[in-house]
Amino acid sequence: MNMGMHYRRRLLLAFIAVLAGILIAGFWNYHLVDGFGRNIVTGSTIGDSEQLAQSFDSNGFGFGMLFAAIAGLAATFTACNCVVFAMIPGMTCSNRLSPVQAALRALLVFSTAVLLISAIYGFVIGLRGASFVEQLNVREVRLLQAQITFSVLGLAMLVWSVIAFGFVNRWIQKLPQKTILFFSSPSTKAGIMGVFVGLFSVGRPFPVFRDFLTYAAASGNPLYTAFVMCLQGLGQIAVMVVLMLSIAFLFKNKLIRWMERHPHQPQLISAVALAAGGTYLIYYWGLAFMFDIGRWGFKLGWY
Fold first, then answer.
1. Domain that holds residue 226
2. I want to staple 53 with a disulfide (CB 3.0 to 4.6 A). Which of 134, 158, 214, 221 is the partner?
3. How many helices and strands in the chain, by DSSP H and E?
4. In-domain check, residue 1
5. CB contact burial 66-78 (16+ within 10 A = b; e otherwise)
6. Burial level of 62, CB count in 10 A (0-12/13-18/19+)?
7. Nearest-CA neighbor of 2 among 220, 156, 170?
8. Is 141 among the domain residues?
9. pTM of the model as a whole
C-alpha cells in the first residue's frame, strides 16, 4: 500500500516507534497506573475492590453489573489499552464515508468484536467456576497468562504495522484483490482491533479486574458471567468511544480536508501506533520477564 512517503522515511518512523515502545516499556510505572485505577477510579466510586471481590453473597447480581463497568473503566489507561486511542484516525477516516458515518460504522464493528470475545471468556469463567478463577489469580499463573497473551498480541500488532507501513507490498499485491480490499477497509481493521481489545481481558493481570473476576465467578452462572464480562468490555472502551465520536462530530470538516490533503496520514499514524504498541507488549511482557531487562525506573530508584 502506497503511503505517499519515501521508503527510508517510513523505515525511520518505524524505528522511532519501536524505540519509543521499548522506552515506554522499560520505564513503565505500573504502580502509578494500577494505583490510579484501584484508588481513584474504583476506590472513589464503589470502594476497595479486594474486599468487594468476596462480597457476592451480600451484594448480589445487581452490584456485579456496576462492578463490571467500573473494572472496565479503571482499565482504560493501562498500557495495553492506550495503543487503541492512536487507532482513532484510521477508524474515523474513510474515502467513501463522512467522518461521522465512518466512526459509527467502525465503532459498531469494533464494539461487536469486543463483546463477542468478552462474552466467550466470561462464559468459560462461569462454567469453570470460582475455584478455577482462584487458580488463575495465583500470581505466577496470572503473570504467565499475561506474558503469553500479550506477547502474541504484540507480535500480531508488529506484523500489522509492517503491512501498514507498506514494507511488504510486493507480497501483499500477489493476494487476490478482494482479499486486499477486505483487509484494508476501516471496518475490518476496527473488527481486528476489537478482537485484540477483547483478548486484553484474557491476559490482563490488573488487580481490580482480577477482583471483579472473583466476584463474577462466585455467581456460579455462566450466562451472568458472560453478561457482566461484556459490561466490563464496554467499560474499558467507553472513553475511547466518547473521544472518537467527539472528534468525528466536532472536527468533521477538518477531518475531510485533512483526508483530501494528506490521504495517507491516518494509516501512517495507525502504523506508528501499532509498531510502538506491539513493541511495548513484546518487550514488557516477553523479553523483560524472560531476561530481566525491564523495570528501569525501579532499578534506578526513580520510583
1. 7-299
2. 214
3. 18, 0
4. no
5. ebbbbbbbbbbeb
6. exposed
7. 170
8. yes
9. 0.91
